[in-house]
Every structure is written in structure tokens, then in C-alpha cells.
Amino acid sequence: MDCQQAVNNVIPVIHNPASVQKLLDAVKVSLGFGLKTIVVTKAVGTAAQQGVPEAFRLVLRSGGATLIVLPDIKDAVELLHPDSVYFLSTRGGDSMGGMRLGGVGFWL
What we know:
This protein has 108 residues and is of the alpha/beta class. Helix content is 42%, strand content 26%.
């Protein structure tokens, strides 16, 4: 498997975004890496009201990616069936099965 094939198997999950700018930055970085599927879970506040529509616009302009918006990270795990789950966070967040969640999760 070459590098691009490996990248195509990664699904970034932006969990619990509250800031429009942070949500859009995460989507732009994901698109910049050439990822084909991006998931947003539990968007709140202005990120949910303004950021999600703007993120859809960015994804549609990219011409080949898909944006999935779900109410909770458990829904994403249930629907996407990832082989592995990696969580990256700069601060604590929600918990799921004893694991602390927050920030961006990358699934393979």
C-alpha cells in the first residue's frame, strides 16, 4: 500500500467543535491532505449554526470529498466501523467507554 492509499483510509472526526474558525481550519487541513471523508460530531453553538454550512461549502468545492455530520461520536463508530481509532486532543473532553475524548479523532 502506498502513502496515498493509506491516507485515503483515514477518516478525520472533528468532535465537539464550538468555534467556526477551528472547525473550518480542521476541514481545510483534512482536504489539504486529500482525505475523502470528513466527519463532524456534536457540533455546538456557532460551529453548528454557521460552521457546518460553511464546511459543507468547502467540501463541495473540493470536488471529491464527503462531509458527514452526526449527533455523537458513538454514532460515527457505529456507522463507519473503523478498524482502529486514534484520538488527538489538547484538552479533556467527553468520555466513551473509559476513554477521554476531545478534539480530532483519526480512524483507520
